[in-house]
Design brief:
mainly alpha
């Protein structure tokens, strides 16, 4: 069994072919590459409750203008990282 942290030769080949100048070959390789990564990503990244505690609603007055900094991540503050979304 291959080490799960090292890509297999087949996966490496798909990645190389996905950058082909031949658009048809690159498109097919991209689809195959996505399929090959789907299961490992679901097992590793989407394991358990991945949404709890990510978002915090910010209730604004109807006339308020929401402004959020675009550079809110600074070295040393990674643990305080917050994501914003406006529906």
């Amino acid at each position: 069994m291959a080490n799960r942290f090292e890509p297999t030769p087949e996966l490496t080949d798909l990645l190389v072919r996905s950058g082909s100048v031949n658009k048809a070959e690159a498109t097919v390789a991209n689809g195959e590459f996505a399929k090959a990564l789907e299961l490992p990503l679901r097992q590793g990244v989407l394991n358990g409750d991945i949404l709890d505690g990510i978002f915090e609603p910010v209730v604004l007055a109807q006339s308020a203008t929401p402004e959020f900094p675009l550079d809110f991540l600074a070295p040393g503050t990674e643990k305080d990282f917050v994501a914003y979304t406006i529906p």
